[in-house]
Design a protein that fits this description.
The chain is mainly α. The protein is built from 8 helices and no strands.
């Protein structure tokens, strides 16, 4: 699959969304990740060790909702026709619901956990769906292996430099979401960062039809 294929473009767009969502969750929801579950496991360990500023409850809420989302993605996969459109539609709807909560209730108290759950549920659905697609170097949420491949497969390392442009674009699109997401959160516009996430996710419905 080439990088201008409609599905590849949709996945690049979702990578931008991942940057936005991690900016919202980590900076605006008590240092919790909703896209990066490796980060949550580490955060829970930090909190249990007594490090200030981290929440076991928030991270556990995120993990549980994420797993539920991945389970739903697995169920969708058994009903293959329309799987991607359904998954992308659910993701956009969940971001919209999270934005509505923030507009109405802010991000304090119980509302914080509701927003965490909605975002992690969306990301679980996304990750479960994208995993099933198996598109190399386009996971949309985790960049560790992408960055490893960028260096280890390079000609400097004696590799064949396969899909280097895709790997670099994955990193750049994550940055393209995280930077404006951080600016919006730091300026008190968390709800609008979620609106942008919903809009970008909805755009994937136009970029790809299964």
């Amino acid at each position: 699959m080439h990088d201008r294929h409609p599905l590849a473009l949709a996945l690049f767009g979702l990578t931008v969304v991942s940057g936005l969502i991690d900016a919202v969750s980590y900076l605006g929801l008590g240092h919790v990740f909703t896209a990066n579950m490796t980060g949550n496991v580490v955060v829970i360990a930090f909190a249990l060790a007594g490090a200030p500023g981290f929440s076991v409850t928030g991270s556990l809420t995120s993990l549980a909702a994420f797993l539920l989302g991945a389970l739903l993605a697995g169920r969708l996969a058994t009903r293959r026709p329309g799987q991607l459109r359904t998954a992308f539609g659910l993701e956009a709807a969940l971001y919209g619901a999270a934005a509505a909560v923030v507009f109405a209730r802010g991000t304090d108290g119980p509302a914080q956990y509701v927003v965490i759950a909605l975002l992690a549920l969306a990301m679980g659905i996304r990750n479960g769906t994208v995993r099933g697609l198996g598109v190399p170097d386009l996971t949309t949420t985790v960049l560790t292996l992408t960055l490893t491949g960028l260096a280890a497969d390079s000609r400097l390392a004696g590799g064949a430099a396969t899909r280097q442009r895709r790997k670099l674009l994955s990193v750049l699109t994550m940055l393209a979401g995280a930077a404006p997401g951080a600016v919006l959160v730091l300026h008190g516009q968390t709800a609008w960062a979620l609106v942008a996430s919903a809009a970008l996710s909805a755009a994937t419905l136009l970029l790809h039809r299964d």
